[in-house]
Amino acid sequence: MKKQIATNAAPKAVGPYSQAVLAGDYLFASGQIPLDPATGEIVEGSIEAQAERVFLNLQAVLNEAGLDFSNVVNATVYLADINDFATVNGIYSNYFTGEILPARCAIQVAALPKQAKLEVSCVAYKG
User: Fold this and answer.
1) What is the residue-averaged pLDDT of the chain?
2) CB neighbours (10 Å) of residue 38?
3) How far is CA 101 from CA 43, 45, 104, 120, in A?
4) What does the pLDDT look like over 11-27, one tens digit per residue?
5) Dist. CA 74–CA 72, nearest whole Å
6) In degrees to the nearest 10, what's the CA dihedral of 7, 78, 116, 109?
7) Is residue 31 classed as helix, strand or coil in its secondary structure?
8) How confident is the model at residue 127 (pLDDT cuts 50, 70, 90)?
9) Do residues 19 and 6 make contact, with C-beta atoms less than 8 angstroms apart?
10) Which among 36, 92, 95, 124 has most CB atoms closer than 10 A?
């Protein structure tokens, strides 16, 4: 069983994809960049401001599926500049807490959509 997850509390997909897809007990959340859901525009400013927006967007998608960050089993963090790793890691740790943290990959990429400084995707387990 597959179900599309969509919420107005996160930015609309900017291409032919879903914000997330629930497949059985797993939620596959598309990468979120720091788009303001109200305007569809990139959040200007610091990596901190952009990271907060990314995690709020992911939180909205998770919540729409009846989940939260404690359900996340895997996360991928894409950074435009690996020098932002420590800052993003600090903000990440505000959202991902608890005894069992998700597996994670963090990598620098050549570029991200709309000149975003980061993008984060995740997989969550509903069971």
Assistant:
1) 97
2) 9
3) 27, 29, 9, 15
4) 998 789 999 999 999 99
5) 6
6) -140
7) strand
8) confident
9) yes
10) 124
